[in-house]
Amino acid sequence: MTELIITVRGTSRSEHRPERATVSVSAVADGxxxxxxxxxxxxxxxxxxxSLEALRDRGVVEEWSAGDATVWxxxxxxxxxxxxxxxxxxxxxxxxxxxxxxxxxxxxxAVAADERHRIHSVQWDLRAxxxxxxxxxxxxxxxxxxxxxxxxxxxxxxxxxxxPIEIADAGLLAGTExxxxxxxxxxxxxxxxxxxxxxxxxxxxxxAASVDVRFRAS
Length: 218
Fold this sequence. Notes:
The protein is of the alpha+beta class. It has helices spanning 34-57, 104-112, 128-156; strands spanning 4-16, 20-31, 61-66, 70-74, 77-78, 81-82, 87-98, 117-125, 162-169, 182-185, 187-188, 191-194, 197-200, 205-217. Helices cover 28% and strands 44% of the residues. The strands form four sheets. Strands 2, 3, 4, 7, 8 and 11 form a six-stranded antiparallel β-sheet that branches. Strands 1, 9, 10 and 14 form a four-stranded antiparallel β-sheet that branches. A two-stranded antiparallel sheet has the order 5-6.
């Protein structure tokens, strides 16, 4: 019987409840005087730093960081054209990783109460050990998916069994197209600001894997 080689791509996708949250906010200010604008943004950033430091002491925040002040100026556009007076702007970005996702909403409520603060994004992720385990499981599941596909093809061709002879990340086997080998999809929070505070609807963190497997069918 002529040797039959079957090459298939197996995929896997799993969803996981977020365990960590990375929050991006900033302290902002604008006005006619550059020195005053920078001072206001610096003071606003100091309050963010103080609150995050307190949360880190309690173990709620794993780490946080703040950048230097970014300062720029422009002339606002009016019906008559550009304003003759410069308006100065300052922004200091602050990022924090929360070990307790449940604490994010309350902290952002407090942040939003200060008009000098701006909320940019919340991204949800898994702890390192959870992610590593999930990625291994995804790779195993992707190989199982490839086996099932190959078995189906072999059966349709009148062959009884398949034997794997090559396994590689998607796109690395000769004759296959590149694909996503393993990806982590971060869930961004949908934020709904209301008088009652921020309502979060984080999507699950998705772990996906894709492998190419070449089988010999007999």
